[in-house]
Give the backbone structure.
Amino acid sequence: MSQTTPRLLRALAGETLERPPIWFMRQAGRSLPEYLELRTRAKDFISFCHDPEMAAEATLQPMRRFPMDAAIVFADILLIPGALGQEVWFEAGEGPRLGPLPDIARMADEVEASTGRLSAIGETLQRVRAELEPERALIGFAGGPWTVATYMIEGRGSHREISRTYAYEHPEALDALLDVLVDATASYLVMQARSGAQALKIFESWAEGLAEDVFERIVIRPHRAIVEKVRAAGVTAPFIGFPRGAGALVEAYAAAVPVQGVGLDTQASAAMGQRLQANGKTIQGALDNLLLRAGGKALDARVETLLAQWNGGPYIFNLGHGVMPDTPIAHIAQVVARVTGQPVKVMETA
């Protein structure tokens, strides 16, 4: 690839670079004062996500502060249920809430229309790509079907016992719901790629605690189907799959799902990451977001360890989970400066 190709895309193509590209999950907003001010202008969180001007601004704010190698579009994994006809809202201080699960067959009829209802996210991507420097990549994303299904079934975030029980007691209904979400997610990601997203990420945030056969059925199978459908539509953008909490099953995931990058969470071992690299996958992660918040010498030491253990192969520096809202800006700057070799000036306001 050309030296002007974004560093993230070079890493996802399998290059071992002199230093890894860096970006952070949930870097768009949350911990930045300019984001908090911007958020006050929106009627509610869903409206914020569907406002291309505001969402583009949220996407770009961390890129102005830090020399990140990639931006990730400001959106939410629960936009798809809303587009399929389920009521979705966010309670202040408590998180997402969803209305009753609609009839699955009826949602299947809404798949084609659902992508049109998410066109604002495509406009956000277009706006960001027009402003973002060409050497910095733009990432689009969607939630993994199982994770999205847990919210749709339970009506909120939880420990997912209800959803896992549902998977055992109503396997045909769950498979039908996952199939709807596969179709809607693939169509949504195709739209994102055509709107300017240069890499696509699938966030399977709730992949933990699943037996091997269940993991194959409700995580691996849907992810593989999404990638295949996106490729069938002519989209060549690389994929990053993130089965957070999957532990040793991450290697089975990497072998079975045709993604270029595999996201690793905090528990990932050095040896597992090296095996994935040796088997042709780019790895991403696994800095603890709590350590990023805590800072200090332990943060410096962990950054050095991650760089030392994985810099011998294709690697993207990132967290094992998203930036926490109360993470000090100075701690983010500390890590970015170490990884990129560029000094980062810390400003309390933009």
